[in-house]
Amino acid sequence: MNLTLFTLLVCAGGLFASHSGALTLQVLWCLFGAAAAIALPELGGATITPAVLFLPFLLVRAIGERGVNGCLRQVAYPAAGFWLTLLVIWGVLSAYFLPRIFAGEVMIQALDRAAFNLGIALVPLHPVSTNLTQSGYALGGVCAFVAVRTLLERRGVLDHLRDAVLLLAGLNCLAALINLGEFYLGLPGLLEYVRTGGYAMFDNYEVAGLMRIQGTFSETSAFSGFTLPLFAFTFSLWLYKVRTAYSGVLALSSLVFLLISTSGTAYIGLAFYLSCLALGLAWRGIVFGRVPRLGALLLMGMLAPLITCGVFIFEPELAERVADVFEITVLNKMQSSSGVERSSWNQQAWSNFLDTYGVGVGLGSARASSYPLVLLSNVGVIGTLFFLVFLIRLFRSNTLHHASPDRAAVRASKQAIFAALISASFSGAVFDLSVLFYVFAAVAVAPPVSTPATGRTHAYA
Question: I want to staple 269 with a disulfide (CB 3.0 to 4.6 A). Which of 54, 85, 104, 423 is the partner?
């Protein structure tokens, strides 16, 4: 086990930060998804990221705030946490038993680092290091959900967490800007110091002459999968007039970086998310007779294509380059070597699901390139059903028909979850959806908070 500078920083923050400071740090550590707080050579080069390492400190604060019983209430039936806990328990059990039950009978796509780094594709099913690491990440997801959900019971913490996510979005945009400066302006490689994890790093590479933005992450797909939920969160806050100037600038910046990232995940994810958002707003207009910021949305909808056409008319070379990027990253993606490889992952994942009679090959055993297939191939029908019920509980919680700043923050988290699921559906390779996903999940079911003047409570949606 190798310790890094991040180990010292995480431990220092965990020991000395206040309750609200710890919550902010937990959110901010999520930015360093490609950093190693602790390296584990014994597990094939696996790493513990700063966000995961910080979780025990946050959980201790949650226990100190509400006690063990207060934390256990977050996973009581029929709350969302109950179904998440069932999913993780089943996942951990499957990680131990299923690779042994079906050992040698099923061929899987290599997920453990040793085989993958050697270029080995199909191997007989057997226990691998990623059964342990993915189980650890799954347990970390439950800890993140329980700790954040518990701490949100204190009045004012929801607003604090909302501002922490806004700060995270700002730092993510700053990292993308630094990334562009490193490539186009020859700035020193500052971000290489936060890409210390045991991942394959794809830095300083381009498509059609345009740099592929990766920010603090290992590749542009990971950057896009992280940025799309932050765009959804900040745009939702702007839409409902919460921290309007700040959230608006961050939403626009995140959108711009997604558009110039040259990531197929970003383009497809944005297309699906914005289409669903437009349909949702239209439905809201039909049902409630009012659409938030309708004038501004219509103005942006008219100006965006006009400005784009104007730029392309005066800069035809830029138009050709953009067309090349779109053709490479979206239209011809499935014909590329990467697309063919990822298609084979999905085909094998579906085969694993069928070959195990819908039980799965065990959490962490197989990779895919689509999160639904990751679920089906790893944890089977049982785990997939647990996950679906968990999502239903998230999206059906705290529904009100009146607007409030608090409700807007919770709604923004639900939008972020939805955007994250869209992104994962097109590029998710493993079970772990990141600590930030479970932070958003905890906010989505944030509890009612009493107002000091009247003692009344209001729910969040």
Answer: 423
